């Protein structure tokens, strides 16, 4: 039986360990050469639903290469300001 291929951290729908969901690829990064910016949406539960804040992040930061343990929401997790989307 073939081993299932793991989806990339930049695949739309992927949720990182900090509950940030990839929405779409936006375009080339202005701040990190060779990277793309991805729109993320915060999935942290809040009263009445989820945070839902959307912001941009470089692909290398989604799982934590540049952000330590995975990108965190600028609104409710005190994460760094996002890239323009």
Description:
- The protein has 85 residues and is mainly β.
- It has one domain.
- It contains no helices and five strands.
- It has strands at 20-28, 36-42, 45-46, 49-50, 54-58.
- Strands 1-2-5 form a three-stranded antiparallel beta sheet, with no helix packed on it. It has a two-stranded antiparallel sheet with strand order 3-4.
- β1 and β2 (36-42) form a beta hairpin.
- It is globular and about 40 Å long.
Provide a compact summary of the structure.
This protein has no helices and 5 strands. The protein has about 80 residues and is mainly β.
Key terms:
mainly beta; single chain; globular; two-stranded antiparallel sheet; 85 residues
The average pLDDT value, as a whole number, equals 89
β-sheet strand percentage = 25-35%
Structural class: mainly beta
Evaluate the radius of gyration.
Answer: 13 Å
Report low-confidence residues grouped into runs of 5 or more: none
Q: Give the count of helical stretches.
A: 0
* Shape estimate: globular
Count of folded domains? 1
Number of strands: 5
């Amino acid at each position: 039986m073939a081993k299932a291929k793991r989806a990339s951290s930049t695949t739309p729908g992927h949720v990182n360990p900090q509950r940030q969901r990839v929405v779409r690829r936006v375009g080339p990064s202005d701040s990190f050469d060779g990277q793309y910016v991805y729109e993320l949406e915060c999935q942290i539960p809040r009263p009445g639903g989820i945070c839902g804040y959307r912001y941009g992040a470089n692909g290398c930061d989604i799982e934590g290469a540049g952000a330590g343990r995975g990108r965190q929401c600028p609104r409710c997790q005190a994460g760094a300001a996002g890239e323009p989307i």
